[in-house]
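Chain A, query sequence.
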Amino acid sequence: MARKRRLHSHPSVTRKMPVCHSIFLLLCFLQCASVYSDITDGNAEHLKREHSLIKPYQGVGTSPSSQWDFWGSTLVTSQYVRLTPDERSKQGSIWNTVPCYLKDWEMHVQFKVHGSGRKNLNGDGFALWYTKDRLHSGSVFGSSAKFHGLAIFIDTYPNDEAPDRSFPYISAMVNNGSLPYDHGKDGRFSELGGCSAEIRNKDHDTYLAIRYSKGRLTIMVDVDDKNDWKECIDFGGVRLPIGYYFGASAATGDLSDNHDIISMKMYQLMVEHTAEEDNQDWTKIEPSVSLLKSPKDNIDDPTGNFRSTPLTGWKVFLLLLCALLGIVVCAVVGAVVFQKRQERNKRFY
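Chain A, predicted structure.
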């Protein structure tokens, strides 16, 4: 899948410019290249086929040489991998059999969610995984509720009926196996962030991209047929180990949909790390997020409440803003009081 290019050059323009201007533009280009060096834009030379699921899905099966294995209601055709049909009470998944040892990566997923149900009568959704274990069925979109790693949930049915978000809804969660995903609350107390996205019954292709680079998790969507990524989640301080597995799973309940994976394309990001980072044993990293409490801190909290956490950047900003406003108010009140006293003292002279 060739996606959007971000760096462009026009030789007819550079030929007309003086040498100094050309040198200046070259320096700017090199600077931009360093900034965007971790952006693949779907470049074929960075495609990692051992972690990619591409038509006609020749590497899918149960043989020892297969790179993808599937379970449950999953149906593999020449055009798509259907995790669940548009039928009640179905579960299915597909998993990469090759562990990923890339420190920085980007996964592009082409998918389709469609069914005969009306706009708000469909379910339940599907999930994309980067986890320690694979092929474990469970209650969370066809996979285990307690997992080690990263999960991206594409939830098409509101279980909580809360008015503050619309569905379908995309969210992300990092877990070390101690905190279950709360399906009844749509995972709102353990999510890193999320966004609404109209993905059902589209006539055009729909895409989702997951980028993990230098501790930053970015999730983007392209569901409007505009050939452009729209940011959904951007979160720093994320720690994920290497050696985990990629997968996708889906489930239906009383309501149903077809959940189709068209492709999953994995790209290696060319990113430089410090010597300290390179010498670290990345297989022993515990999945965590530095800006949130550890999931272990919430093991006795039935809601998995992440709200009593250390101050994040925006909380610090709000506190500083309130403090500044308080200082301004005190200064104004002090000036008014001082002026009143001066006027009162003048009356005694």
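The two ends are 87 Å apart (CA to CA). The chain has a mean pLDDT of 81.
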